[in-house]
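Progress against Task 2.4 (sequence-to-structure conversion) is shown through the following example record, which the project officer requested during the mid-term review.
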Amino acid sequence: MAHWAPAKNDTLEAIAREILHNYRRGRSIIAVDGIRGSGTAEFADALADALREHGTTRDGGPVEVVRASIEAFRHPPEQTDAEGVQSGAPSLPGGYDYEAFRRLLVDPFRSGGGTFVVAPGPAGGGTGSPERRIAAPDALLLVDGVFLHRSEVRGIWNFSLWIQVPRELADERAEGPGTATEAERRNRDRDLYWRDADPRSAATAIVDNTDEEHPRRVFADSC
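C-alpha coordinates generated for the chain above:
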Protein backbone atom coordinates (compact mmCIF):
# COMPACT_ATOMS: atom_id res chain seq x y z
CA MET A 1 0.00 0.00 0.00
CA ALA A 2 1.36 3.43 -0.95
CA HIS A 3 2.18 5.70 1.99
CA TRP A 4 1.14 9.32 1.60
CA ALA A 5 3.96 11.79 2.22
CA PRO A 6 2.90 15.40 2.81
CA ALA A 7 4.68 18.16 0.95
CA LYS A 8 7.01 20.24 3.09
CA ASN A 9 4.97 23.41 2.62
CA ASP A 10 1.81 21.66 3.83
CA THR A 11 3.45 20.47 7.05
CA LEU A 12 5.02 23.87 7.68
CA GLU A 13 1.76 25.72 7.02
CA ALA A 14 -0.20 23.47 9.39
CA ILE A 15 2.30 23.98 12.22
CA ALA A 16 2.55 27.71 11.54
CA ARG A 17 -1.23 28.13 11.63
CA GLU A 18 -1.43 26.19 14.90
CA ILE A 19 1.17 28.48 16.49
CA LEU A 20 -0.45 31.62 15.12
CA HIS A 21 -3.89 30.52 16.33
CA ASN A 22 -2.67 29.92 19.88
CA TYR A 23 -0.20 32.81 20.17
CA ARG A 24 -1.79 35.60 18.21
CA ARG A 25 -0.94 38.50 20.53
CA GLY A 26 2.07 39.36 22.66
CA ARG A 27 5.51 37.82 22.46
CA SER A 28 5.96 34.06 22.35
CA ILE A 29 9.02 31.81 22.14
CA ILE A 30 9.22 28.63 20.04
CA ALA A 31 11.88 25.91 20.18
CA VAL A 32 12.95 23.60 17.36
CA ASP A 33 14.88 20.81 19.10
CA GLY A 34 16.57 17.70 17.77
CA ILE A 35 19.82 15.77 17.73
CA ARG A 36 22.69 17.23 15.77
CA GLY A 37 22.16 16.53 12.09
CA SER A 38 18.38 16.29 12.35
CA GLY A 39 17.94 19.56 10.46
CA THR A 40 16.73 21.85 13.23
CA ALA A 41 18.21 25.05 11.78
CA GLU A 42 16.89 24.42 8.27
CA PHE A 43 13.46 23.46 9.58
CA ALA A 44 13.35 26.53 11.85
CA ASP A 45 14.27 28.81 8.93
CA ALA A 46 11.49 27.32 6.82
CA LEU A 47 9.00 27.55 9.69
CA ALA A 48 9.92 31.20 10.20
CA ASP A 49 9.08 31.87 6.56
CA ALA A 50 5.75 30.05 6.93
CA LEU A 51 4.89 32.08 10.04
CA ARG A 52 5.65 35.32 8.21
CA GLU A 53 3.59 34.23 5.22
CA HIS A 54 0.50 33.21 7.16
CA GLY A 55 0.64 35.48 10.20
CA THR A 56 -0.58 39.05 10.48
CA THR A 57 -0.26 41.65 13.21
CA ARG A 58 -3.09 43.66 14.72
CA ASP A 59 -2.52 46.38 12.10
CA GLY A 60 -2.60 43.90 9.22
CA GLY A 61 1.13 43.61 8.55
CA PRO A 62 3.17 40.39 8.49
CA VAL A 63 4.08 38.92 11.85
CA GLU A 64 7.69 39.49 12.87
CA VAL A 65 9.76 36.37 13.52
CA VAL A 66 13.18 36.67 15.16
CA ARG A 67 15.55 33.75 14.53
CA ALA A 68 18.14 32.64 17.05
CA SER A 69 20.13 29.51 17.84
CA ILE A 70 21.37 28.05 21.11
CA GLU A 71 24.65 27.48 19.24
CA ALA A 72 25.41 31.19 19.66
CA PHE A 73 25.54 30.55 23.43
CA ARG A 74 27.84 27.55 23.28
CA HIS A 75 30.82 27.52 25.63
CA PRO A 76 34.27 27.30 23.99
CA PRO A 77 35.21 23.64 23.39
CA GLU A 78 38.21 23.85 25.74
CA GLN A 79 35.91 24.93 28.56
CA THR A 80 33.55 21.95 28.23
CA ASP A 81 35.71 19.10 26.96
CA ALA A 82 37.89 17.67 29.69
CA GLU A 83 39.08 14.92 27.33
CA GLY A 84 40.22 17.36 24.64
CA VAL A 85 38.00 15.71 22.05
CA GLN A 86 36.79 18.00 19.29
CA SER A 87 33.38 16.67 18.29
CA GLY A 88 30.23 18.00 16.70
CA ALA A 89 28.33 17.99 19.99
CA PRO A 90 29.45 19.68 23.20
CA SER A 91 29.56 17.71 26.43
CA LEU A 92 26.02 17.49 27.72
CA PRO A 93 26.58 18.62 31.34
CA GLY A 94 27.87 22.08 30.45
CA GLY A 95 28.03 22.75 26.73
CA TYR A 96 25.92 25.91 26.73
CA ASP A 97 25.67 29.10 28.78
CA TYR A 98 21.99 28.87 29.68
CA GLU A 99 22.28 31.73 32.17
CA ALA A 100 23.49 34.10 29.44
CA PHE A 101 20.83 32.76 27.08
CA ARG A 102 18.11 33.72 29.55
CA ARG A 103 19.64 37.00 30.67
CA LEU A 104 20.63 38.39 27.27
CA LEU A 105 17.94 37.00 24.99
CA VAL A 106 14.92 35.37 26.63
CA ASP A 107 14.19 37.75 29.51
CA PRO A 108 14.55 41.05 27.59
CA PHE A 109 12.65 39.66 24.60
CA ARG A 110 9.78 38.48 26.77
CA SER A 111 9.67 41.77 28.73
CA GLY A 112 8.98 43.61 25.48
CA GLY A 113 11.18 46.57 26.28
CA GLY A 114 14.42 47.68 24.65
CA THR A 115 16.99 45.52 22.91
CA PHE A 116 17.91 41.87 23.28
CA VAL A 117 20.93 39.87 22.14
CA VAL A 118 20.52 37.01 19.65
CA ALA A 119 24.26 36.27 19.57
CA PRO A 120 26.54 37.30 22.47
CA GLY A 121 30.04 38.67 22.37
CA PRO A 122 32.99 37.04 24.16
CA ALA A 123 31.53 37.71 27.62
CA GLY A 124 28.51 35.60 26.77
CA GLY A 125 30.42 32.72 25.25
CA GLY A 126 30.45 33.97 21.66
CA THR A 127 32.98 35.75 19.48
CA GLY A 128 33.02 39.32 18.15
CA SER A 129 30.49 41.98 19.08
CA PRO A 130 27.02 41.12 20.43
CA GLU A 131 24.25 41.05 17.82
CA ARG A 132 21.47 43.19 19.26
CA ARG A 133 17.90 43.39 18.02
CA ILE A 134 14.61 45.07 18.75
CA ALA A 135 11.21 43.63 17.85
CA ALA A 136 7.53 44.47 17.51
CA PRO A 137 5.13 43.91 20.43
CA ASP A 138 3.65 40.77 18.82
CA ALA A 139 6.93 39.25 17.62
CA LEU A 140 7.78 35.55 17.79
CA LEU A 141 11.22 34.29 18.81
CA LEU A 142 12.16 31.03 17.08
CA VAL A 143 15.16 29.19 18.55
CA ASP A 144 16.79 26.09 17.07
CA GLY A 145 19.38 23.75 18.47
CA VAL A 146 20.08 20.68 20.57
CA PHE A 147 19.11 19.85 24.16
CA LEU A 148 16.31 22.46 24.18
CA HIS A 149 14.12 20.41 26.52
CA ARG A 150 16.69 20.27 29.31
CA SER A 151 15.49 21.48 32.70
CA GLU A 152 17.50 24.73 32.36
CA VAL A 153 15.39 25.91 29.41
CA ARG A 154 12.37 23.63 29.29
CA GLY A 155 9.99 26.16 30.87
CA ILE A 156 10.87 28.93 28.42
CA TRP A 157 8.93 27.70 25.41
CA ASN A 158 5.35 28.55 24.56
CA PHE A 159 5.53 25.92 21.79
CA SER A 160 8.24 23.39 21.04
CA LEU A 161 9.01 20.91 18.29
CA TRP A 162 11.06 17.73 18.35
CA ILE A 163 12.66 17.04 14.95
CA GLN A 164 12.99 13.28 14.67
CA VAL A 165 15.43 11.36 12.45
CA PRO A 166 17.34 8.07 12.86
CA ARG A 167 20.69 8.56 14.59
CA GLU A 168 22.67 7.07 11.72
CA LEU A 169 21.09 9.47 9.24
CA ALA A 170 21.66 12.43 11.55
CA ASP A 171 25.36 11.54 11.80
CA GLU A 172 25.64 11.38 8.01
CA ARG A 173 23.99 14.79 7.63
CA ALA A 174 26.11 16.41 10.32
CA GLU A 175 29.79 15.60 10.34
CA GLY A 176 29.87 11.90 9.61
CA PRO A 177 30.44 9.18 12.19
CA GLY A 178 33.75 10.71 13.36
CA THR A 179 36.19 8.78 15.53
CA ALA A 180 35.11 5.97 17.82
CA THR A 181 35.63 8.24 20.83
CA GLU A 182 33.51 11.01 19.31
CA ALA A 183 30.74 8.59 18.40
CA GLU A 184 30.78 7.10 21.89
CA ARG A 185 30.47 10.49 23.54
CA ARG A 186 27.82 11.67 21.09
CA ASN A 187 25.71 8.59 21.80
CA ARG A 188 26.28 8.93 25.53
CA ASP A 189 25.09 12.54 25.51
CA ARG A 190 22.03 11.64 23.44
CA ASP A 191 21.16 8.78 25.78
CA LEU A 192 21.54 10.99 28.86
CA TYR A 193 19.40 13.68 27.29
CA TRP A 194 16.72 11.19 26.29
CA ARG A 195 16.70 9.67 29.78
CA ASP A 196 16.67 12.97 31.69
CA ALA A 197 14.49 15.15 29.44
CA ASP A 198 12.41 12.74 27.30
CA PRO A 199 12.18 15.43 24.60
CA ARG A 200 9.81 13.43 22.41
CA SER A 201 7.18 13.48 25.16
CA ALA A 202 8.00 17.01 26.31
CA ALA A 203 7.59 18.62 22.87
CA THR A 204 4.33 20.21 21.77
CA ALA A 205 4.72 18.65 18.33
CA ILE A 206 6.92 15.98 16.75
CA VAL A 207 8.07 16.10 13.14
CA ASP A 208 9.64 13.14 11.35
CA ASN A 209 12.30 14.75 9.17
CA THR A 210 13.77 11.57 7.69
CA ASP A 211 12.70 12.83 4.24
CA GLU A 212 13.55 16.53 4.33
CA GLU A 213 11.29 17.26 1.36
CA HIS A 214 8.37 15.47 3.00
CA PRO A 215 8.53 16.08 6.77
CA ARG A 216 5.44 14.81 8.53
CA ARG A 217 3.78 15.41 11.87
CA VAL A 218 3.74 12.35 14.11
CA PHE A 219 2.50 11.76 17.64
CA ALA A 220 4.19 10.54 20.81
CA ASP A 221 2.10 7.37 20.97
CA SER A 222 3.08 6.34 17.43
CA CYS A 223 6.14 4.38 16.39
